[in-house]
Amino acid sequence: MPNRLALKFIVWPMVLVMALVLVTACSSDGDEDDDTNVGAPAAATQAPSAPAATSVAAVPAPTAAAAAMPAAMTPVTDKVIIGAQLPSLLSNNVGRGLSPQSQIQLVPMYEYLIGTDPNTGALIPQLATEWSVEPNGSDIRIKLRDGVRFHDGSELSYRDVALTVGEFGAEDSSHTHQRNYKTVTIEAVSDLEFIWQLPGPLAEQMRRLSAQVGGMEIMGAADYAASGPPMMTTAPTAGTSPWQFVSRDQQTDIQFERVDYDHWRYNPEFSKLTIRWMNEESTRLAGLLTDEIHITQLGADSTELASNEGMVVSQGTQQGARIFGAFQGGYIDSTDRSYKAQNTPCGYVHCDSPWLNAKVRKAFNKAVNKDALNEAFLRGAGQNMIIQAIPESSPAFNPAWKAAYPEEYGYDPAAARTLLAEAGYGPNNPLEIVVNVSNVASFAAAADTMEAIAGMLQDIGVKPKLEAPDSAAHRPRSRALKLKNWIGLTSTASFDVQSTRVHHANITPRGGGFEPLFLKDLIKDLQSKMDATEQDALLRQLGDIAHPLHIAINLFWLPPQIVLNPEFVESWVWPGNVSGLWSHFGNIQVAKK
Q1: Residue 418 scores a pLDDT above 60
Q2: How confident is the model at residue 330 (pLDDT cuts 50, 70, 90)?
Q3: Is the model more confident about 136 or about 439?
Q4: Is the domain defined by 77-318+561-590 classed in CATH 3.40.190.10?
Q5: Closest CA to 83 of 315, 253, 258
Q6: Domain made up of 321-558: CATH architecture
Q7: Where in the chain is the domain with CATH 3.10.105.10?
Q8: 30 — phi, psi (to 5°)?
Q9: Number of helices (H), then strands (E), in the chain
Q10: Residue ranges, CATH 3.40.190.10, the chain
Q11: d(CA 130, CA 124)
Q12: Can you give the pLDDT at residue 71?
């Protein structure tokens, strides 16, 4: 008879809150923004690796977002209201006071050096018209767009980039990439050209400059010099977007208005944009149905209710957000800030960790009924994760991985029991593990999902112990690599190059997952490549090795969704893989009459 844990996921309410604001897991010493119940660091956002081009030629400025309409077709509203959860970090200083996952409160008023195509996820020119890696393989030459106006009337130059970098890299900055920015030097070539100098190659740098990762919102140096550091009682430093700051009520909303001049990139159809803070999902649903708000994000149950009432569900165009089971304990024995190498004979911190055995890792993947989890907690919306970190749309993705998926990762409890027996475990010697069933802010069903997985593992003879440790106490333990036989759920939207570092490498910060010795050198090599083609080639090599060796419990890609009130908003094309979810406000098309 199936055990109680295995049945639990079938009968419990099916909920999913994909709150990609992901603010609770951010830490000042990390440089990632994912959410996890395993004490792991966080990560930023996901896109196919190909867009991270190292050289882009100048292109004409895009035309206005809205095409000309017949005179009879006029917008039904001049104001769009978004209902969103209040970020944990609140500040008017986008430089020092926020992190990529909390910047929804100010991101409408800023632009980036590099944009993101909402349909393809490709990196495209925005404030920068060209960028290329210098001959030394690490520095980046960047040319800025001429004539771009800040909200205070000043024009874009390298000085604005230098100010922004200095703010993000300040010692008191809350930015998750603060350690990166404090090592950057801006060397001016002219007002509109500069060299982004790095101490060495950084594979993630191009996307960190872009709207895709977020966190590089360009602030106006002239306005900063005139007004000083922004406070909650003063306006944010001027940006360059078509939206400028009007006012904010700290716990209620923040309001923007369309600039009164012809913007270089697009002119919005409506003149007012408000982000209203509504933490309770039920409040956001009610607000949507009563026309109080026009756009919001809801869990699966509320989304279905809204759809039944005539609301429109809009899905992001890109894969990015995902959940997977992390094997905690298979850490490489190498010194970092929280751990001193012990020169162990196996090369790992814990030579008796069960995660060092590939048969155990495969058994866990074969024991998990992913279809049942998908139906129970995602209403069938999850997409099978063929391999951790690399989406199927990426040039690095190998179709052979998908062909091998049923054999390697498909549900087969009998095969799982056989694999465990071959690994030396059985009724008289059960594999004992700890399953972390703590809550995860960005995936409301995390605890229930992990309890269900524990039940499935129990069915193949594993002896799971369920724990929900306090995160404040658990994180130092995880950072110090003290965990040996834990599994937990990680929810992240980190892009491929970043995720291999954060979740599978002996590179600080650590503790987020299995660190295979057999991938160590390839991951290190990958971190030094700034050319997208070279990155893709190495990612393919990594995947070819990792896929049959089961470095994680592959679960699901989570399609990002928002819900629109069609009486006010006609459509919104957005990638969904951008840090903090909310982006591409220029693509909001209001309803017409």
Answers
A1: yes
A2: very high
A3: 136
A4: yes
A5: 253
A6: Roll (3.10)
A7: 321-558
A8: -100, 175
A9: 16, 23
A10: 77-318+561-590
A11: 9
A12: 55
